[in-house]
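Can't attach files on this board, so I'm pasting raw text. These are the components:
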Amino acid sequence: MANLIAKSASDGLLPLQIGGLTLTDATPACITAVAPYPGQQPAVATALKKLGLDWPAANCASRSAKALCLWSGRSQVFVINVVPAGLERAAALTDISDGWSALALEGPAAAAALARLVPLDLGAAAFPEGASARTSLGHMQLLLHRSATQRFTLYVFRSMIKTAVHDLETAMKSIAARAAAR
Amino acid sequence: MRIAGKGIIDRAQTVGFRFDGRDYTGFEGDTLASALLAGGVRLMGRSFKYHRPRGVMTAGSEEPNALITVGQRAASVPNVRATVQEIFSGLEARSQNRWPSLGFDVMEANDLLAPFLSAGFYYKTFMWPKSFWEKLYEPAIRRAAGLGALSGLHNDETYEKAFAFCDLLVIGSGPAGLMAALSAARAGADVILADEDSRMGGRLLAEIEDVGGQPGHLWVEGVLAELASLPNVRLMTRTTVTGAYDGGTFGALERVGLHLPNPPADLPRECFWRIVAKRAILASGALERQIAFPMNDRPGVMTAGALRAYLNRWGVAPGRTVTIFANNDDAHRTARDLSQAGVRIAALIDVREGVAQTGDWPVFAGAQVIGTKGRLGLREITLRTASGTEEKIETDCLAVSGGWNPALHLACHTNGRPQWRDDIAAFVPYSGMVPGLEAAGAANGAMSTAAALAEGLRSAEHALAALGLQPKSPDLPQAENGGARLQAYWEVPNAEGRAWLDYANDVTTKDVRLAAQENFRSVEHMKRYTTQGMAPDQGKNSNIGALAVLADATGRGISETGTTTFRPPYTPVSIAAMGAGGQGAGFAPQRFTTSHKAAAERGAPMIEAGLWYRPSYFPRPGEASWRQSCDREVGLVRNRVGICDVSTLGKIDIQGKDAGRFLDFVYTNTFSTLAAGRVRYGLMLREDGLVLDDGTTARLADTHYLMTTTTAAAGLVMRHLDFVAQAFCADWDVRSISVTEHWAQFAVAGPLARELLNSLLDAPLDDAAFPFLSCGRVLIGGVAARLYRISFSGELGYEIAVPARYGEALYRDLVARAESFGGCAYGMEALNVLRIEKGFITHAEIHGRISAFDIGLQGMISQKKDCIGKASSLRPGLTGAEREQMVGLRPLAAEKAFGAGAHLFEPGAQPVSANDQGYVTSVCWSPTLASHLGLAFLKNGRARHGQSVRLVDHLRGTDILCEVTNPVFFDPEGGRARG
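---
Top answer:
Structure tokens for the assembled complex are below.
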């Protein structure tokens, strides 16, 4: 009988430490897309409440001790690290755990490094801890979450992880080189 | 020469550099221009058309003459302005557009031909014989005229792009910009202060004047120290704001590593910023203009303000005996400053009558310069006094001032037209030309320091009010408050000789008058006829002067004549910066399948499919060409078993009570009646009735479907479904999401496919319960997988999908098992051959102009229901004998190869477009049928099976006869797949 070995998308690419910045694999245990059917959002919100999660507004996120809920599109959120059971009637649930890979970029200059790739104001006022946005990382789709003041979690398509790591590495090196040249 | 005790740069640091192979030294803070002037170098370039010797004219980014090439080989950068390039230890700079040397340039002969090379000469002179233009004249003219050249080598240096955001962007750090930034910063606004110079301060670094009771540059230092200490301020030096765009977005180019001797390897050379600002203040100052007089282009002729900058900032006197020629009071400061520094002032020539003596030098009021001498540098000028007599003056530097033009370019970037102001004889911007942007200081026509400071403060208060912040305005410091006192004066009249307007493109007053004479009277027409304003300086030095001459020539006012359109970028921006990150593979993201490493280890060359990389074929020892590998892979799939990664096909998860109804609407055929556990082939149309995509959709459960799309159209179909769901079915119980990336999926195809799977799966397949077009859940080592019995090869085939984390392991396992069964991994080449043999379509066939009828699938458009595109598909012209219909092609001589893109003709017809009967979309060598095969679209093709057509490929030189056949060449009954 076969025994399939599981592999992370960023296998062999991470971790990276460049200057004061680190880039690590932050792929969560599971990601479930939750898309309420028409009129079912209140019911879904109530059910998520039991998991300690609020239904997030567009481009927002909610968190509990264990789980995370990121708005991911019209009438759709990603519930991360817990499997939201009991919602099958009210929402389409789709396991997309392996479709998205997550990277954590951490350090004092994390926002400055991302400013090379993400076209959003990531300043502490405009994008504080807990903020989330569906945006782009260079030419790639990105679901961005500021998981701590100096830590961003970046959810990208699994197949594009190599380009994502490369682009982030380039930005990290640039930030480090600017600091060295100063 | 360097003047002792003058300038504000640090003379403790000596810097060595090279120009045209000679060693020079300068000081830290020098530009290449200031250091060369200090070294006595006046000749820095050759002009564009006439190859005339040229020297530096300005001290800023507007420099038209001193364009040089910096760096070596691949890293060399042409057309760098010597006034912008900072010197650093090891800098290598070269002059341009000259041969063999700057001092002796054989193309200077062009200058003697000047009478024949006036504006538009190439439209008239080089027209005959006609064919000579493209082959001889144009290449010769292009070689003779020019700027610096690119190296032609691949440059892998790093460039960068970045985004920045702020409440207030202040463009320019002169008195107005500093005052604006300071007051906005104190009020708590997020401020970006950007200046293209390496040092902030603007004209305050170039003038001898007090601000707030201290020398201007010290006041600057105080303000900058406060700004640097504030967390809400970002100071961006060496950053030129190059364009104003919609929504408060500005483009800006930062020179990051261009001034450093040994920059860190990862330091970008330049960074192209996109700055989004809620408000912006344009404090970009003003640019001094020349006066047109005969032979006004010699090295040593400069702007009067540039002379003060070189003297007061860099401690350099560009000449030993300086003459001043002006129409305003401002230029008199040049005489004052130089004289105080010990430089001899030969004369001050002012076109205005009754100008007072301001110092110990001869003043010629109401006089003009009417000629100059000096081949490689100014030696002598001729002036005409108020009484009309002529005098010659020996001088090696002429400081000219025709007044100042506000640097209003950014304000015009969204097509606002500036307004003329008579008192300063210049165009000024008005509020609202770019929404949210206000000009202040000299950029707004406020030409004294005091007025600039006041406007800076006022504009900051306006911005703060718009931002909802309370101003905490600093007190206005005391400063110089002289007026412009200028007499509009553009061109010395009644004087012999060429008078340059546009130095960079060698355009003279005569050219502009010629344009007017030939009826190119609009300023836009004049510009294009003469090329005035089309050089790298974009007319910054010549625009207003040229249109004043045009206004005069056409008998109109300047205001009425108007300016040409100022467009981004304000200064040249390297493509490398705008395209940063896009070199080589950085052009687009790369998508890799989970099996990529395993395939690469087997030596498979990769082929790009959209952003994906897919193995082309898997070479084995002894196979000399792709064809051998491909033929073997096809044979093994037909006879044993093959494995192919098909994860790149789009997979869309569709759920909800109305999922079946939704699929009925987007597909031409019916899916609501499909039983759970079954798969059906579906065809999807666009709104216009042509084919959008095809693929299989599985009903996983009652309210749960899994659609597959082609690789090419995965994103397109997802977007289409989102649109249809939102626009037409908003209240339906249906939700869809892409799961392409979640599942790794592999085709297992061939007569031994079932045996192979049974060796792998936790429980063997019950064949009777899992016939062709079934789907279901299976377990592999406890991992839940999805199994589909579908076939793109025509063989007994399955596709098995596991969560992507297991993809690599499953692929390696499948291939190993296939090899044990005598099979192999197969790539895109074999996949293509297998599907052509079966007549299966890809986007080579459904390329966007194809109807369901064309591919013989009109029967799939259900009569019982409506679907997207159905009504349009019934339009006349989309069906019938006149349509090109899909057919198979077999060459009458089986070994004759042909290519996709070839066209089809009647056997006796001339192979010309009028006789075109169709075209070939896909071709292959079929090892199964031992023949070349093709899929093609042929007029009335389905009725022509068995007939011959002439296949002609004009590009590849093919001309053969083919038999038209059914497109399904192999196993037309499909027994093997059902097997």
